[in-house]
Amino acid sequence: MLYLCKVGDSVNNTLDHKCPNCDAVLKFNPHGQNWKCEYCRSEFDLETLNKYEEKADKTLESEAISPENIDMYSCPNCGAQIIADPNVSTTSCVYCRNVAILKDKLQGEFNPDYVIPFRYTKEDAINAFKKLGKGKILMPKEFNNKRNINEMSGIYIPFWLYDYNANGVIEADCKRITSWRSGDYRYTKTDTYLATRGGSMSFDNIPVDGSKRFPNDIMNSIEPFDYKDLKEFNYSYLSGFLSEKYDVTKEEAEQDAINRAKNSFISEMEKDIIGYNTVVPIKNNINLQNIKNDYVLLPVWMLNIKYKNKIYTFAMNGQTGKLVGNIPIDVKKAVFLWFFVFMITFGIIYAIFYFGVVS
User: What single DSSP character describes residue 239?
Assistant: First the structure.
């Protein structure tokens, strides 16, 4: 059921999903795609959970599920805005790891249309990270510290999805090169052609990151998501996870979607230009019709580890399990290893030379 949680001296309408059997906090279970009680081991699907919630006090329920009443925490250090676990009054900022405190509330315009639920658990994400570092003997000790690794956090990242119908024409400068030998001379002939191709295409669910704070290169690296798993948004999916609201509007984000659509259109048209040594697009006229756009939350496991005053970010697609991130080299370990190898090599060479002279 849904309850109001009191934080400090004021009442904040945070979402809290309670087990109908024992009243413990329910968390979303990525493996079972349901909600599981860690105390009495009861499990509930979304339909069953909604039935229990409908029996709760309607006034309390309407306040609890209102987007305007979801507690928002804002980090005083980096400004990141996240929805924290509803049973705490403070939380650690997943971006800079400073303490985040309550500052604002989620407004109605930030209410998502859809969500892709997590399919991988925190344990899955930690194991994947450990596998990434396995065998890396020059990895700094900070990346093998259990305390650091356990800071892995599940976050729903805001995204805009765009659908387009596209039609247009591209022109390309194409060259066909032939070469032959006659006597002592080699001849090369270059024929130049102007190739034109046109057509129409449809694009569904072109994603654009809706958060300025989440690195775009990392988010692009953990794509793609399978949008067949999109579910109509329900606050129950946020149980046990953090979530950030968008700070990039759909109008601001659309240019990225347009660029991706046009580049894909050009790339597909180029595939039809065959029989040439080189193909260089020189002109295009592409028209895009925006069919629709949706505001969605996508699941990401994220870990930030600080090493030598630099934050190293690791992210795993919470739906597919794809993990990205770079582990730095510990310079001290590298120097020690070089010195160790040098001494061993020097010792072997010295022994060979010494015993060779003696014999």
Answer: T
